[in-house]
């Protein structure tokens, strides 16, 4: 592993932590990347996750966790700069390109991802997935949204309720 | 100098106002949501696999999704199911009123039909009434808000009570009149972190309660707001967290007298100009006079890291503040480049063009009055179809400005240079005479720097003379055409360079050291 560029100035090599998914897969990552998670950050600050211990994450399966960590590793350097006010336009464009491709995935993965981000308190990832879902339903009618999100067709009763409700929020359909 | 009065008819005034509005809109930051689905441009491989997974998410996450939607789309989610129905109302609201227009785009129209504006206003009223808050971002820029003052008062009340954090409030006071104050309710918006006001008459701060304050306000923008120097004092003194202060233009009215208890604002707005010359925008007068009356000088030591003052003719004071407090961040964002930087308060401010005889005469007069030790100096050429007369080297040599140029001018920036004969004559005169000159920036007008030979022609003028030893010459081309306006608030606000410097960094630069 290359020496950390930023870090907290603690001698040389980056500190690594081990995370254990619900299906018992072990992932070793830099503490700086894992610390994008507010939940993990506390444990890591307390000295957890080092050595052979590992931090168990019973709510996150290995497929999802590897995806989450992919995001964290990519975003860690910018986060270390404190939101990166000094980041160059190139860096920002690169992150944006990464984010665009990162969420170009099946809905099933998308929802496990946002749940994991929610549990691990990774703000940026939650927002990114929320934006992706929002983009899927922008500009659509309620019926189209229902179909996009995989809702079953409404019963006649539900349909009547929807119609009444649409009248109440008429301005949203003009 | 007697006051000069500029009179405009309604149509001219509306044109000016719409133009000014577009400057205000440019200063506003991008809202956090867009009608444009950037991420959905990509394929949605499993968009319709018929499995409802989104319903497994907790309300907090559904709220995050809804907060990422423009307001119409967000409100439509209330129809989806009983589960979704109550969520929108209690999810942090991002309200951008141009998203409520029939076209519903991110573009804010300069011209807006009254019927559309009324429909938007009705929807805004409903949203603000029904939504429980909080309001992290509200932008109201589509309203002819003077048409219904009680509605405006209700909006502000809702915004204050439900905790608005970022607020853009831009009025469209057409036909132009600003005789009523903005309600002082804005001072009860304790959660505000960013506030931009456009086209308002600021509340009279004299009558405000002592506790009125913006405890969390970090960014404040006054865009063509009519206010008194004491109001600026008041606001700055009561905004302890302020980091960025943006002041763009200013509405100026003739001083009210006992005979005129009402500010004489009429359709044929009278603009009195003591400081400015014809040909400038009408919006910057009072800011200029505040500046020139040295009211703003006291803020030089004020610990705000960024302050931008747009459309304020750059007088000596402005420049001096910009230079001396560079590290603290007094950045003067330039609407265009003004000619005078003399600190002598009797001198007028304006754009000097060496092609016009009248300008040249005034310029020489002005230069001959300069008494300070060192000046930066800006020149801007104007497009001209007139004959340039006889503004040759001899004219300049005989003009009497030589003393100042020889011993006082240390920086010269020549904007919109086109390489014409009179321009070259002026430059030659300058190069030969200016002994104090440390830095010269020649900014060619867009499209006028065609080859390296053009740059060499300029360089040759300066390389010949001993007078300019130790002087840096930068030749570059402007990115913007003269009509675009070269000023840019965001660039000014976030720049950490000398305002002159962006020409070098953002244009196709051909730096040539002498």
Characterise this structure.
The complex is a heterodimer of chains A (174) and B (514). Chain A is mainly alpha-helical and 174 residues long. Chain A has two domains: 16-138, Potassium Channel Kv1.1, Chain A (2-Layer Sandwich), CATH 3.30.710; 141-174, no CATH class. Helix content of chain A is 54%, strand content 7%. Chain A contains eight helices and three strands, in the order E-E-H-H-E-H-H-H-H-H-H. Chain A has helices at residues 31-34, 38-45, 62-80, 89-102, 107-120, 123-137, 142-148, 156-168; strands spanning 16-20, 26-30, 55-56. Chain A has a three-stranded mixed beta sheet with strand order 2-1-3. In chain A, a hairpin with a 5-residue loop joins strand 1 and strand 2. The longest helix of chain A has 19 residues, at 62-80. Chain A is elongated, with a radius of gyration of 20 Å. Residues 1-11 of chain A have low confidence and may be disordered. Chain B has a domain at 351-514. Chain B is built from 16 helices and 15 strands. Chain B has helices at 10-27, 59-67, 71-76, 87-90, 114-130, 149-161, 229-237, 285-292, 316-324, 357-369, 393-397, 402-407, 421-433, 452-463, 489-494, 502-506; strands at 4-7, 94-96, 135-140, 164-170, 194-198, 219-223, 244-248, 270-273, 306-310, 330-331, 375-380, 409-417, 439-444, 472-477, 509-513. Chain B has an eight-stranded parallel beta sheet with strand order 2-3-4-5-6-7-9-10, sandwiched between helices. In chain B, strand 6 (219-223), helix 7 (229-237) and strand 7 (244-248) form a beta-alpha-beta unit. In chain B, helix 5 (114-130) packs parallel to helix 6 (149-161). The longest helix of chain B is centred in the N-terminal third of the chain and has 18 residues, at 10-27. The two termini of chain B are 42 Å apart. The chains are: A mainly alpha (174), B alpha/beta (514). At the A-B interface, helix 5, helix 6, helix 7 and helix 8 of A face helix 2, helix 3 and helix 5 of B. Chain A: One of its GO terms (biological process) is jasmonic acid mediated signaling pathway. Chain A: Belongs to the SKP1 family. Chain A: Part of a SCF (SKP1-cullin-F-box) protein ligase complex.
């Amino acid at each position: 592993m290359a020496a950390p560029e930023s870090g907290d100035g603690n001698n040389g090599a980056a500190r690594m932590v081990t995370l254990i998914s619900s299906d018992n897969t072990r992932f070793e990552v830099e503490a700086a990347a894992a610390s994008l998670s507010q939940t993990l950050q506390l444990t890591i600050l307390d000295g957890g996750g080092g050595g052979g211990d590992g931090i168990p994450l019973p709510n996150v399966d290995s497929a999802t966790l590897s995806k989450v960590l992919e995001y964290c590793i990519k975003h860690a350097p910018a986060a270390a700069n404190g939101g990166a006010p000094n980041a160059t336009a190139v860096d920002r464009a690169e992150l944006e390109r990464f984010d665009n491709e990162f969420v170009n995935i099946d809905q099933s993965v998308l929802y496990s991802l946002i749940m994991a981000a929610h549990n691990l308190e990774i703000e940026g990832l939650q927002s990114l997935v929320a934006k992706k879902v929002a983009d899927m339903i922008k500009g659509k009618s309620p019926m189209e949204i229902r179909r996009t999100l995989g809702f079953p067709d409404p019963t006649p009763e539900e349909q009547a309720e929807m119609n009444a409700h649409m009248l109440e929020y008429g301005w949203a359909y003009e | 100098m007697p006051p000069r009065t500029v009179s405009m008819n309604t149509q001219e005034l509306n044109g000016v106002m719409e133009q000014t509005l577009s400057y205000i809109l440019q200063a506003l930051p991008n809202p956090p949501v867009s009608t444009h689905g950037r991420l959905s441009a990509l394929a949605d491989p499993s968009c319709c696999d018929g499995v409802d997974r989104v319903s497994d998410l907790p309300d907090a996450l559904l709220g995050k999704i809804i907060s990422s939607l423009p307001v119409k789309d967000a409100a439509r989610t209330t129809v989806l199911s009983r589960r979704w129905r109550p969520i929108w109302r209690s999810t942090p609201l991002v309200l951008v009123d141009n998203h409520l227009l029939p076209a519903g785009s991110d573009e804010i129209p300069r011209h807006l039909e009254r019927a559309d504006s009324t429909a938007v206003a009705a929807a805004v009223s409903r949203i603000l009434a029904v939504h429980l808050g909080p309001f992290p971002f509200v932008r109201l820029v589509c309203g002819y808000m003077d048409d219904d003052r009680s509605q405006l008062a209700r909006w502000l009340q809702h915004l204050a009570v439900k905790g608005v954090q970022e607020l853009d409030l831009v009025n469209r006071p057409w036909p132009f009149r600003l005789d009523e104050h903005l309600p002082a309710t804005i001072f009860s918006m304790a959660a505000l972190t960013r506030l931009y006001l456009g086209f308002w008459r600021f509340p009279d701060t004299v009558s405000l309660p002592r506790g009125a304050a913006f405890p969390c306000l970090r960014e404040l923008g006054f865009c063509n707001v009519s206010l008194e120097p004491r109001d600026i004092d008041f606001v700055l003194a009561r905004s302890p967290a302020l980091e960025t202060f943006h002041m763009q233009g200013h509405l100026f009215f003739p001083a009210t007298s006992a005979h005129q208890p009402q500010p004489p604002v009429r359709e044929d707005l009278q603009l009195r100009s003591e400081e400015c010359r014809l040909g400038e925008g009408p919006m910057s007068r009072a800011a200029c006079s505040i500046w020139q009356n040295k009211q703003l000088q006291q803020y030089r030591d004020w610990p705000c890291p960024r302050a931008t003052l747009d459309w304020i003719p750059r007088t000596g004071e402005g420049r001096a503040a910009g230079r001396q407090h560079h590290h603290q961040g007094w950045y003067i964002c330039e609407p265009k480049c003004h000619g005078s930087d003399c600190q002598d308060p009797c001198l007028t401010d304006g754009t000097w063009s060496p092609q016009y005889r009248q300008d040249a005469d005034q310029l020489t007069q002005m230069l001959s009055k300069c008494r300070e030790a060192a000046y930066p100096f800006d020149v801007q050429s104007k497009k001209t179809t007139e004959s340039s007369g006889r503004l040759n080297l001899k004219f300049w040599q005989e003009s009497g400005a030589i003393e100042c140029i020889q011993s006082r001018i240390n920086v010269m920036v020549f904007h919109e240079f086109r390489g014409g004969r009179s321009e070259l004559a002026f430059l030659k005169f300058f190069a030969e005479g200016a002994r104090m000159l440390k830095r010269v920036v020649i900014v060619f007008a867009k499209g006028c720097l065609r080859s390296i030979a053009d740059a060499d022609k300029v360089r040759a003028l300066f390389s010949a003379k001993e007078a300019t030893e130790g002087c840096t010459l930068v030749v570059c081309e402007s990115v913007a055409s003269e009509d675009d306006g070269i000023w840019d608030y965001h660039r000014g606000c976030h720049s950490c360079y000398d305002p002159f410097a962006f020409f070098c960094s953002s244009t196709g630069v051909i730096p040539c050291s002498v």
